Structures are given as C-alpha cells and as structure tokens.
Amino acid sequence: MRRSLSAVLVLAALVAAAAGCGAGGPVGAGNGPSVVVTTTILGDVTRHLVGDDARVTVLMPANADPHDFQASARQAAEMREARALVVNGGGFEAGLDDTIAGARDDGVATFAALDHVPTRRQGGHVDPHFFSDPARMATAAEALVGFLADEVPGLDTAAFRRRAAAYVADLRALDRATEQTLAAVPADRRKLVTNHDVFGYFADRYGFEVLGAVIPSATTEAQPSPAALHDLADTVRRAGVPAVFADTSSPQRLADTLAREVGDDVAVVALYSESLGSPGSPGDSYVGMVRTNARRIAAALGDGGSP
After folding, report:
1. SS3 274
2. pLDDT in single tens digits along all 307 residues of the chain
C-alpha cells in the first residue's frame, strides 16, 4: 500500500514542479496610490485587503526563490516611488535588503510583517518563515490593515475596514480548517523532513516535529555535506518516515537523493512554501497554498488517502 501511495505522491510532486516552470510575475492591480509588495504570499494578502482601492505591485514572480531574488532597475524605482512598501523582513528577501533599505531611507513607509508576529529562533537567528502558520499570518494581516489605513491616502474607509475584517476572519478559519485536516495524522507520525528549514512555525502550531532538513538552513543558498545527508537519511530510516517534503520553488535534487538513500518507499512530496504557485495551480493564493499543503501532508503521513 505504501509503495502505491509513494507513486501517487511522487507524480503529484513532479506535476506541481512542472507547473511552476517559466511562470511570469504578478502585475500591478487596482487603482489609486501605489503599494509595492516583495513576495507573492504577502502580495496576495495585501490585494485581498485593499481590493481595487490601491494599485498593488508584487515584485517576485510565482515560484521564485525569495532568498536570491534581486530587483530590476525598474522595480527598484517602483519601490522608491511607492506610497507604501510591504516586506516579509528578517532577512527573508536577502537579495532585496539594500533596495528595501534605500526605499526606506527615501521616506517610503515600510511594513515588515515579521515585526508584528511572535517569532521563533532557528540556528541562532530569527526564523523568517512565519507565513507557514496561518494564525500568525492573520495577526500580521491585522497589523497590515492599520498600516495601510495610516499610510495610503483615501484607503481608510468603512468599506476597506469591512473587507479587511472579512479576510482576516477567513485566515482565522483557515487555521481551524488546517487543524481539522491534519487531525488525520496520528501523533507518532507527525514528523517532517523538508528540503530546507521552512516549516518550523507550522510544526509549532500543529504539533509536528521537524526531524531535519536536507538543507539545514533558513536559506536555500546553503548546501549539506555528504556526511550530513547520510546522517539525515539514517534518522529518516530509523523513524520510518514515509515522505520527504520538497519546496515547489526550489530544486528537488537533494530531496530526491535523500529519498533514494533511504529507500524506494519514501515519497518526495511537493509543498508550496516560500512562494505561491503559478496562476491556476492549487497554490496560486495564500489560502489555497495552506490548504493544499495540509492535504498533502495529511495524505503522506496520515491514513493513506490521495493528496
């Protein structure tokens, strides 16, 4: 039964990865003052909050690796000319750090989402991947509502407040629905091995243990040693973990290598982690991304259903 499940999950991973190839970036939407957002995840949240009352431009394309993304000259100009700038913070957009600092120095009001949520530490540093926990995202969205109302002219209206409150309520409901989906995973199977360290907040929220990561770092730029990969494979083998979870926005080669070393019965399952998926994919919105991840995790670790 597990071998059959593995085949299905590997196929799902390959399809998801293929869907992300060549995806174009989101374009500006709406009218009025310009709000520039660095990541696709926060871009989707911001658009749900403001509707058409502001022109929202997202810098990164779908399936981008946010750690090494760099702005073009045109995008850097858009950041400096924006009425407001929304960023993840915590070094998440490492390739944009200097450009963000430059826009802030030019007087652009800047909202760093990580500054508004309870954080966890990872390897001696603050973990920037708060968005894997929809409850924290709801908290960040509430703070973003206040920031936008204060900084974007004409946005602080009754209609804006109603729309924003409804979306924050949707995020709270998403947290509850995620918990219900993951109820299919028994306590002794709540163990995650991922492509790199990105699901720590998710694990804390829903009672999972992160056994390890193929790239034991908050950034995909790091590379594991052969010895570290061998040790992780031993850990996976002893724990009897049936799946390794790889980012749709990052190469799967290392996760595939780990799965081969552990054995054929270990599936490589694609999750949306640091970027939304291409338009039309299950992860093309923040809500869709979280729902899809929960279903795939439950299928891989739970009762053997399909993802």
Report:
1. coil
2. 333 334 433 333 333 333 333 333 444 456 689 999 999 999 999 999 999 999 999 999 998 889 889 999 999 999 999 999 999 999 999 999 999 999 999 999 999 999 999 999 987 899 999 999 999 999 999 999 999 999 999 999 999 999 999 999 999 999 999 999 999 999 999 999 888 789 999 999 999 999 888 766 544 455 667 777 788 788 888 888 898 898 886 667 767 887 888 876 788 899 999 999 999 999 999 999 999 999 999 999 985 544 4
- In one-letter notation, the amino acid at residue 197 is D
Question: Counting beta carbons within 10 angstroms of the beta carbon of residue 220, is it exposed (0 to 12), middle (13 to 18) or buried (19 or more)?
Answer: buried
Cα dihedral: 235, 236, 239, 245 (round 10):
140
Angle between helices 286-301 and 158-182 (to 10 degrees): 10
Contact 214, 229 (CB under 8 A): yes
Q: Checking phi first, is residue 145 left (phi over 0); if not, alpha (psi -120 to 50) or beta?
A: alpha
Which amino acid makes up residue 173? A
Instruction: Locate 32 and state its tokens.
Output: 């009025």
In angstroms, the Cα distances linking 233 to 95, 133, 191, 250, 262 are 32, 27, 14, 20, 5
What angle is formed at CA 205 by the lines to CA 39 and CA 248, rounded to 5 degrees? 40
What is d(CA 65, CA 218) in angstroms, rounded to the nearest whole number? 12
All structural domains of the chain: 2-22+185-301 (3.40.50.1980), 34-177 (3.40.50.1980)
Q: What is the CA radius of gyration of the chain?
A: 19
